[in-house]
TrEMBL record:
Name of this chain's protein: Acetate kinase
Free-text comment on the cofactor: Mg(2+). Can also accept Mn(2+).
Family: Belongs to the acetokinase family.
Cellular compartment(s): Cytoplasm
UniProt: Mg(2+) binding residues: 7, 376
Sequence positions that bind substrate: 84
EC primary class: transferase
Pathway: Metabolic intermediate biosynthesis; acetyl-CoA biosynthesis; acetyl-CoA from acetate: step 1/2
Species assigned in the record: Kribbibacterium absianum
HAMAP family: Acetate_kinase (MF_00020)
Residues that hold ATP according to the record: 14, 199-203, 274-276, 322-326
InterPro entries to which the protein is assigned, alphabetical: Ac/propionate_kinase (IPR004372), Aliphatic_acid_kin_short-chain (IPR000890), Aliphatic_acid_kinase_CS (IPR023865), ATPase_NBD (IPR043129)
Amino acid sequence: MNVLVINAGSSSLKYQLLNTEAGQVYAKGNAERIGIDDSFIGHQEGDGEKEKLVVELPDHRTAIKHIFEILEKVDVPVDGIGHRVVQGGWYFPESAVVTDETLAEVREVAPLAPLHNYAEADVIEICRDLYPDLGNVIVPDTAFHYNMPEHAWRYALPRDVADGLHIRKYGAHGTSHRYIWKAASEFTNGACHKLVSCHLGSGASLCAIDGGKSMDTTMGLTPLDGLIMGTRTGTVDPATVFYLQRVGGYTVDEVDTMMNKQSGLLALSGVSSDSRDIEEAAEAGDKNCQMAMDMFCYRCAQLILEMAQSMEGWDTMAFSAGIGENSDVIRAGVCEKLAWMGVKIDPELNKVRSGDVRRISTPDSKIDVLVVPTNEELMIALDVEDLLGDK
Ligand code: ADP
């Protein structure tokens, strides 16, 4: 089946057209600066050159029409559309076919992720309207964590408040963690039972996966919780929020922006939110960058053990996403802190650069350590195939 995967943001729209059987990517790209000046579509066919197509994109509807026109030239029929939805809230334990009802649910839970869900719901509606013959599927990033045990998802807030406002740990990156489990299971021929999946990108989260089920994860009500990220704080004492307002004089929105966009590696390093820049500066002796990297690895190792505890054991860990797949320095930094637990990696294997799943631990390591390039798009496409049937 040929599936068009769409990942819509408020001013951007990423797409990928791929085949579920072969995993072959026919085309992919990103419509950027939608509703702003200087909009364009970056498009790539197969392994070809990236092209930049300058087009006016006043709204998402225009962007989608352009994308379908571009894809006509690829000459591969689209059999169905999969939509990444950031927040499935209290409605989606798994992916679901788009109907009036499920679309309304995506909008109903949007206050939990206002920057994403409204745009995603609008895009789903536009696709149904423009291409009524194509089925659409909602793939929420939270679905994988929906059935975590209650002791993992419940917060110790007054029950009536928490339940009334649907406050709980929803987590994120669920589609990626689910793919990482699948790839790790296949690579180890089923020898992986209790996996700590480490999705370390500009957004970063860990997931404890026992027999394919999410048992706990580090992101919470929103993606702000857990690990230190590119520009997000990760976990801080929640009272910091009141203190910043009462004593610092910041408004709620200013605190929101500070903690989501101006903190994390960016704030600690004073250089960049990108781990490549930080690694380079740290190597050149920048003390703040060295501290930023050390803190990133410290928190990561600490929370890996929290995930292991939630499964009462672990046999495998997998590094994934931009940092996890590419930075041997961060991988080594994290594993070094876990050496006392019997985690041992081979420095040469750790330095190998490859797009394949690979093992970097030594034969005598107590924990199997893997690098797994994630593929959320393929996971989404497989869900579309499951729900809409093979064509
Ligand atoms: P997201 O999808 O959340 O934007 P990615 O998974 O693409 O994030 O990861 C982006 C981050 O990965 C970048 O900010 C950068 O820090 C890191 N990264 C990407 N490539 C490399 C590399 N070769 N070495 C070190 N870090 C890298």
